[in-house]
Amino acid sequence: IQLFNLKDSTIIQDAQNYLWITCGFIIFSFVNQIFTGILTASGHSKNTFIATTTGLVLNLILDPVLIFVCNLRVIGAALATIIAQIIVTLVFLYDAKKLDLFQEIKLLSKPDKNHISKILKIGFPPSIQSMLFTCISMYIARLISSFGAISVAVQKVGSQIESISWMAADGFSASINAFTSQNYGAKNYNRVQKGYKTGMLVVGLWGLLTSCILIFLPGPIFSCFIHESDILPYGIDYLVILGFSQLFMCIEIATQGAFNGLGKTLPPSIVSIVFTSARIPMAIVLSHFLGVNGVWWAISISSIIKGTILVTWFILYSKRRLIA
Question: Which residues of 15-50 are buried (b: 16+ CB within 10 A; e: fewer)?
Fold first, then answer.
């Protein structure tokens, strides 16, 4: 928390309370991620959708009740989060009883060493990627905070608006992952390539649409969330600048799913770690000349580079290894 150089003791205490509660029950978040991966990869994405939606709706209901009605404020937000996560876990467990996929699992049995080795080999690169991405984002957030409260507010609201592209891309990435892994395992390489092309077409069109929306309609969109006239120009700058990278971010996420489906998690991790890390020096240099807009350009430019390189890498890899 000290990383963000917060001056208000009340905010610091609220942040500590939130972390104590949510991290104390973080095991449910871990379990939910495991269930999501297993069910999606096995083609049961509908079950994942129902469980996740149940948690989201419950969180939407509990947040205002606990925060405002019960006057628990930040603690209420934390409690709403963990209660929703616990319910999602229970829904997953209910589904697990119905699916043959989990019938032979014995939780107390000794795990297979070969399975552990394979899981670590596949899971270690993206886990490092995710952790470093979070650390880099925290440093970027600290840099943004140096430009004042308006910049922080713009980034928080803008990133929520921007999520319409990457959250949809995440969903298609999961489907591409499952489709790729199933057909790759069956040695049906032609279907792997066709599936990737089809997925990229859908995700590419969505990314192009969101890019156009953010670039050409930033004012009406941002004003739906913040009405203050002194903040609106900053919000417009954010959406326009990030708008240029939405297409590339979407195809990067989709291609990551294809690589993961092949069991090749290292290439997307390398690209993400290298060029996400590059955001820090880029943001420092560009912000010196462009102010906080330099930070937005650093994020956007790095996303463009990541998308271009990862897609090129997959195309070259598939030509060498996936010729039917």
Answer: eebbeebbeeeeebbebbeebbbbbbbeebbebbee
- pLDDT bin (cut points 50, 70, 90) of residue 98 is confident
Nearest to 40 by CA among 154, 217, 218, 173: 173
Res 105 pLDDT > 80:
no
Q: Are both 134 and 274 inside the same structural domain?
A: yes
Between CA 63 and CA 76 the distance in angstroms is 7
Whether the Cβ atoms of residue 132 and residue 277 lie closer than 8 Å to each other: yes
**Pair (55, 183) in one structural domain:** no
Lowest mean pLDDT among 94-98, 165-169, 263-267, 309-313: 94-98
| Together in a domain, 158 and 41 | no
pTM of the model: 0.82
Whole-angstrom distance, CA of residue 26 vs CA of residue 17: 14
Decide: residue 306, CB within 10 A, 0-12 exposed, 13-18 middle, 19+ buried. Answer: buried
End of a domain among 64, 83, 109?
109
Query: Which residue, of 109, 125, 144, is where some domain finishes?
Result: 109
Owning domain of residue 80? 1-109
Total Cβ atoms within 10 A of residue 259: 25
Average pLDDT of the segment spanning 42-65: 92
Predicted pLDDT of residue 323:
59
Position of tokens 């592209």?
165
The half-sphere exposure of 306 on its side-chain side, counting CA atoms within 13 A, is 30
Residues, the chain, total?
Answer: 324
- Give the tens place of pLDDT for each residue, 257-280: 999 999 999 999 999 999 999 999
For tokens 């002194």, name the residue. 230
